[in-house]
Write a sequence for this structure.
């Protein structure tokens, strides 16, 4: 079991690196959705002390949303704005990967020191969660395309959800479901907004949006 | 058989069989393309033909250009002597010889690069620049990967790392080994100028890295370079293979398994070359940085999994806080 959990967490980290290093939008979407599937499987593997129906519900809802619904929404957004590739990013892909390695080292160093209420949490869980969240944050800051930023938001949400698993026994199901709903609404709204931005301005470059002003 | 005899035997086997590896790669590519392909021994024929020719030297070149192929071949032969590819100890073995292995490959690359620069051709200088650029990314990946395995297997000599008799089932090191193998395979492809990074078949000026650096060498020198390239393929392939193939302790079984493993690595290379296109030049560093990231991840996991032992490196105790032990 430990081997399985460890492999899943390592794969989670690899999907984050994949998101950092890929320039094609479809590849980014694939990374985020694989990440969602891995995350959905985690509650079942971790051996959390909770009723099985709750674990299965949690896994099922997060698989349905993060593994299927979000990628489809993002795909629709990509198709509607007819964008195949991420535009020139603020931070290059190689440099992003190197920064990702630095973030990884940082989260491993910080994550293992963090005191957790639940004993028996896998050592890698908190570092993996922190790394995923930080990667998402970095993607939001370091990319210009609004779609990729939405994916960064999703990765950040994934990281936070993984972090929540570490304290899953204390966390009520309601909170878990609430976060998922929030994420769903956010991605839904982002998809629509991206479409409208694109129709209005012929691009989805978030950098250039900041120069828009109300006053003449 | 006795240890030293065995070491000499496996060294000689490698020297004789190494040119078969590119032969297997080419045969796999031919099968994929529906051709019959060159004979497996083609590399030996090429080398034999080249050895019969005299080298021609341009007047602008100096002794550096002439020394390049010889020193490069010598470097990789010593590297082969350091690597216990069939498990039972190498000719040279001591603590920390994995750094020597990386260093010897570095020496080979260095002399190839300065020999290319010595020709004074802008074209070769371009290839040299690319080689230096890519290897500066590939070498950290190799070293970090070796460090991760050293940590997992609790030894800093190649004999201790590669001579493992069996895998402990469900061991925590499995993920580390797989990550490092992935990273090393990318380094293997890049260092040997195989397809996602460089195309060994083209002579198109815009795509070449390794091939362009050796354009001005001819005759005996070029034979040395070709032979050195096959040995390098054997050394790096042997490193990857040794991580996967467990040792039995019977020398003939070990050697047979190692040769089989190398054939599998060669076939994998051929398959990769058949199904992939060469990456655009700007994407190559990205691939190598991804390999570097995998190695670094492997090293980080190895550091977390294996609490430091006093014999290995006491100062790193600070890296592992007590909370890991819970």
């Amino acid at each position: 079991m430990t081997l399985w959990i460890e492999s899943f967490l390592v794969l989670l980290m690899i999907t984050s690196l994949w998101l950092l290093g890929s320039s094609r939008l479809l590849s980014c979407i694939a990374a985020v959705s694989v990440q969602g599937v891995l995350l959905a499987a985690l509650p079942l593997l971790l051996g959390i002390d909770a009723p099985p129906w709750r674990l299965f519900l949690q896994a099922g809802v997060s698989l349905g949303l993060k593994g299927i619904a979000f990628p489809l929404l993002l795909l629709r957004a990509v198709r509607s704005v007819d964008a195949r590739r991420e535009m020139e990013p603020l931070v290059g892909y190689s440099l992003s990967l190197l920064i990702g390695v630095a973030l990884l080292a940082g989260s491993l160093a910080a994550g293992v020191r963090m005191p957790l209420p639940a004993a028996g949490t896998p050592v890698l869980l908190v570092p993996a969660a922190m790394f995923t969240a930080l990667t998402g944050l970095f993607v939001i800051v370091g990319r210009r395309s609004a779609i990729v930023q939405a994916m960064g938001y999703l990765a950040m949400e994934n990281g936070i959800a993984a972090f929540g698993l570490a304290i899953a026994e204390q966390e009520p199901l309601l909170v878990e479901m609430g976060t998922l709903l929030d994420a769903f609404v956010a991605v839904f709204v982002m998809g629509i907004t991206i479409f409208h931005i694109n129709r209005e301005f012929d691009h989805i470059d978030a950098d250039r949006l900041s120069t828009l002003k109300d006053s003449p | 058989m006795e240890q030293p005899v065995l070491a000499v035997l496996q060294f000689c086997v490698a020297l004789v069989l190494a040119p078969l590896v590119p032969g297997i790669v080419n045969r796999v590519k031919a099968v994929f393309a529906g051709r019959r392909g060159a004979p497996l021994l083609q590399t030996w024929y090429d080398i034999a033909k080249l050895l019969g020719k005299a080298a021609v030297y341009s007047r602008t070149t100096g002794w550096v250009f002439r020394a390049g192929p010889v020193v490069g071949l010598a470097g990789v032969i010593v590297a082969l002597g350091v690597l216990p590819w069939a498990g039972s100890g190498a000719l040279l073995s001591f603590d920390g010889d994995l750094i020597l292995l990386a260093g010897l490959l570095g020496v080979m690359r260095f002399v190839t690069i300065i020999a290319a620069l010595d020709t004074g051709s802008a074209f070769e200088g371009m290839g040299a620049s690319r080689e230096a650029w890519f290897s500066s990314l590939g070498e950290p990946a190799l070293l970090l990967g070796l460090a991760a395995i050293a940590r997992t297997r609790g030894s800093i000599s190649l004999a201790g790392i590669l001579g493992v008799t069996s895998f402990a089932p469900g061991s925590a090191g499995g993920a580390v080994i797989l990550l490092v193998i992935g990273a090393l395979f990318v380094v293997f492809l890049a260092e040997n100028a195989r397809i996602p990074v460089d195309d060994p078949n083209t002579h198109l000026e815009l795509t070449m890295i390794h091939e362009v650096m050796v354009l001005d060498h001819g005759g005996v020198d070029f034979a040395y370079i070709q032979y050195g390239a096959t040995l390098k393929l054997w050394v790096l392939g042997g490193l990857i293979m040794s991580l996967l193939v467990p040792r039995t302790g019977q020398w003939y079984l070990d050697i047979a398994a190692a040769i089989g493993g190398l054939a599998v690595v060669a076939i994998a290379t051929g398959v990769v070359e058949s199904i992939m296109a060469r990456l655009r030049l700007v994407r190559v560093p990205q691939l190598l940085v991804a390999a570097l990231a995998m190695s670094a991840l492997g090293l980080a996991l190895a550091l977390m999994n294996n609490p430091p032992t006093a014999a290995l490196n006491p100062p790193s105790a600070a890296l592992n806080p007590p909370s890991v032990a819970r």
Q: What stands out?
A: Residues 3-305 of chain B form one domain.
